[in-house]
Amino acid sequence: QSQLVESGGGLVQPGGSLRLSCAASGFTFDGLTISWFRQAPGKEREWVSCITSGRTTNYANSVKGRFTISRDNAKNTIYLQMNSLKPEDTAVYYCAARGVGCSPLVIVYRNWGQGTQVTVSS
Known about the structure:
Layout: E1 3-7, E2 10-12, E3 18-25, E4 33-39, E5 46-51, E6 57-59, E7 67-72, E8 77-82, E9 91-98, E10 111-112, E11 116-120
Parallel strand pairs: 2-11
Antiparallel strand pairs: 1-3, 3-8, 4-5, 4-9, 5-6, 7-8, 9-10, 9-11
């Protein structure tokens, strides 16, 4: 059974950092494109970043220069390093997988994790 499990969320002060992890199982991991999405209370789920099997990366303008996505194929894990965090980054963060290239559209991803909460507050 294919599964994605996020971890690494928590409470951090503005300007701080967190690293999220997305562990995949039951997939041919090397061929996956993985995206991170986030959803704040009362808002729609929004795309944050993605990384392809060829390690091409893309970022939403709101996080460009602050967040870095990477992958470790030996560990079947995707990371999202988040620096210079702002209160507006507060959300539940989800990873999602698909077999082809990056897309910011929620509807094209069939596999999702359960999410991890990130709260940025003083």
